[in-house]
Structure formats: C-alpha cells, structure tokens
Design goal:
By secondary structure, the chain is of the alpha+beta class. It is built from ten helices and 14 strands. The longest helix is centred in the first third of the chain and has 31 residues, at 6-36. The protein is elongated and about 85 Å long. It starts with 5 loop residues before the first helix and ends with a helix.
Length: 399
C-alpha cells in the first residue's frame, strides 16, 4: 500500500474527522465556560501553532488573515495577507478564531493565564483569568474534560437509541464463534462446535445456564477440559484446551479461560430514557477501564508497548470508518473518554496540571510567582513533547 494510495488518504481523512471533532468539542468547553464567567478569550485555535488562517470580527467588518509560511515570506515580501469582508452591522469581538498547521491539537488563549503559550503578561484586569475566583478558574479549566465526557455520553446514548441493543438469551446455546486477529480459530470451533449447538456438560458437570458454563471455563485457563454438546439432536464429546486470556477488571488484570463461544443474543429497541442510562454506564465503564489501564502501566503490569498515539489512532479511525458510521462514532466516543481522562492527569501542560496549580494557590491563599509557573509549564511541555515523540516512534515501528 503506497503512501498516496486511496486507502491511506481515507485513513488520514477519518483521523482528521475523528480528532478534529474531539479537539473542537474539548476547546469549545474551555471557551464556553470562560465566556460564561467573564474571561476574555484572545484566541480559539483548532490545531497548534504556527497559524494558517484566522478570522476576527472588528468594528469595520469581518477580517480574515492568511499567515504565509516562513519559507515563502521572502518571495511574497510579506508575513500575512489580510482580507476584509464588509458587514451591515459589524460588531467587534475580542476573540480571534484560528486554524493552525499542526492538526493534532488545539488551544484557547485566555487573557492573564500562564499556559502553553508561555505568555507571562498579567495586568490584573477584571476580564483576566487570574482575576477570577478560584472556583471560576477551576470550572474553566475543567470545561474541556466535561465536554469530552458529555460528548461520549451523547454518542453512546444516540447509538443505542438508533440501533437498539442485544440482550442475552437464557440457556447454553452457542450464538457465535469467537475469533481475533491473533487467534482466528479458537478451540471450540476447532473441535467442531457450531452456532446453535447446545453445551450440555463441562468435565462431567451438567450446565443449563450460561453463567454456570463461563464460571467453570474461566477458572481453568490453559487446562484441558471435557466438553459435551448437542448438534442437530446428536450428542458430541471432545477434549478442548482452554485458552488463557488477560482481561482488565476492577481488581486489575487477571487471567481467565476461554474456549471461543458467545451466547445467543436477542435484539430489541431502546427507549429515550433507557438510552441515557446506557450512555452513562458506557461512559463510566470506559473511564474506569482507562484508569485501570493507566495504573497497570504505572505499576509495571502493562508494558508501554501497549500505548498508542496519533498514528495508531489514525489507523484505528480508518478501520472503523470502513466498517460504517456507527463504528466510527462509537470509536470517537471511546477516544473522547480517553482524552478526558488524560487531560485530568496532574501533569503541567495538561488541564489537570493547571487544576493542580490553581488548587495549590487556593490552599496557600496566594498565587504562585509567574516565573515559577512558566518554569513548571516549560518542564511539563518538554515532558509531553518527549512522550508524544516516543509514542509516535513506537506507532511507526508497528506499521
């Protein structure tokens, strides 16, 4: 597959669509809360510097500014090109809306805030971030995370409302045969078990409910078990080696046994209010999974090799988009939860880092020195850039 193939371009477009919406929603959260509490927003940017295009309302009309790349500034003898679009009722705005060159990112530049721009200018004006009450600052910083969580909730709810949901049917009938990329054929299928067959016993113990079956099999990872089943009224029996799989749980990663079968599911429509419940549960579930996965990396249970960055997300977005709109939106909801979790981590340069600094200032009842904040932000940004570079190199190595 060449780099400029249709498949590659499709993957790039799917990644831009997915990440673009997530970044837009995240930054919109900061923007909306900042405006709500009276903080002046100087710039709202999709993408990271340098800027490509910006638009701003001024008293004499709507102005658009095109930023010329540095390598073209000498031939054009200009750094920017500006266009004015007259309006009948112009209204000045403090905010510049920008589209920047680096697609994987975005930011909201607020007056009087020490952030990733490393701008330490604070004049004490009432519309500045530092002039607001602590709760207003904390709410503004949390706006992006809140909006990402809301987006995930809305998508999960909308999907189940539109498509319905599957509920398990009682009994031990086989509804599906499991396969994965690493293991296309599981032991059950290899032994001859087919869909609609009924499992009747495991190791001589009769089973009539699916929960009984799974409890026995999951407790025997890597062991040989005797299975009996009915297929079209004919009784069969064979020995099956149970596969050992590692799965995340509330107590951490555990090993369970699998033979490679799924139960019969009954599809039904879901009502409006029930979809809300499903959306909330799904958002919480993926949030806790992300937290447990992160903790397992901290404790060394999971290798950093399992971590993916923009390149892996782009690949997965392309794969989901090829399956259809439902899959790409479901994937977007999961990434939105992950983005919310990552941003609440107390790392300088992330929302959680700002939240921690504001909380410390609230505890000590005075703001930290501007120079101290600038150093903290610089160290945090260097750490994040190094981490992104490391993860991206891993992603490329896996291609």
């Amino acid at each position: 597959m060449g780099f400029f193939s249709i498949d590659t371009l499709f993957t790039i477009m799917a990644a831009i669509f997915t990440l673009g919406i997530l970044i837009l929603i995240h930054e919109l959260g900061h923007f909306m809360v900042a405006r709500m509490v009276g903080i002046r927003v100087e710039r709202f940017s999709i993408g990271m510097p340098p800027r490509l295009l910006s638009i701003q309302n001024k008293v004499d009309g709507l102005w658009a500014k095109l930023f010329i790349p540095w390598f073209l500034q000498r031939p054009f003898d200009a750094e920017t090109v500006e266009f004015r679009m007259p309006r009948k009722h112009p209204k000045a705005s403090d905010t510049e809306y920008a589209l920047s060159w680096t697609p994987f990112g975005g930011y909201v530049k607020m007056s009087g805030m020490i952030d990733e721009s490393m701008d330490g200018e604070i004049s004490g004006k009432p519309w500045e971030f530092q002039s607001k009450k602590r709760w207003q600052q904390l709410l503004t910083i949390s706006g992006g995370v809140i909006m990402n969580a809301i987006l995930a909730f809305v998508i999960f709810s909308g999907i189940v409302l539109a498509t319905g949901m599957d509920e398990p049917v009682e009994g031990t009938f086989v509804g599906s045969l499991v396969s994965t990329e690493d293991r296309p054929v599981f032991p059950a299928e290899a032994a001859g078990i087919k869909e609609n067959d009924q499992i009747v016993s495991i190791n001589g113990q009769s089973v009539s409910e699916w929960e009984e079956l799974t409890l026995i099999v999951q407790d025997l990872p890597g062991e040989l078990i005797a299975v009996e089943w009915l297929s079209s009224g004919v009784r069969h029996a064979d020995s099956i080696m149970v596969v050992k799989e590692t799965v995340p749980t509330a107590e951490g990663n555990i090993d369970i046994g699998m033979m490679g079968i799924g139960r019969v599911l009954d599809h039904r429509d879901v009502g409006f209010f029930e979809s809300f419940s499903f959306g909330a549960r799904s958002t919480y579930m993926f949030g806790t999974l992300m937290a447990r996965g992160f903790w397992s990396m901290i404790t060394g249970e999971t290798s950093m090799d399992q971590v993916g960055g923009p390149v892996m997300i782009a690949q997965m977005a392309g794969e989901m988009a090829r399956r259809g709109w439902i899959d790409i939106f479901y994937f977007m909801a999961i990434i939105s939860v992950n983005l919310a979790f990552i941003n609440i981590l107390p790392i300088p340069g992330l929302d959680g880092g700002h939240f921690l600094i504001i909380s410390i200032e609230g505890i000590i009842r005075r703001p930290l020195p501007v120079n101290v904040k600038l150093v903290i932000q610089q160290v945090g940004m260097l750490f994040l850039l190094g981490l992104i570079l490391f993860i991206t190199i891993q992603d490329i190595a896996r291609l």
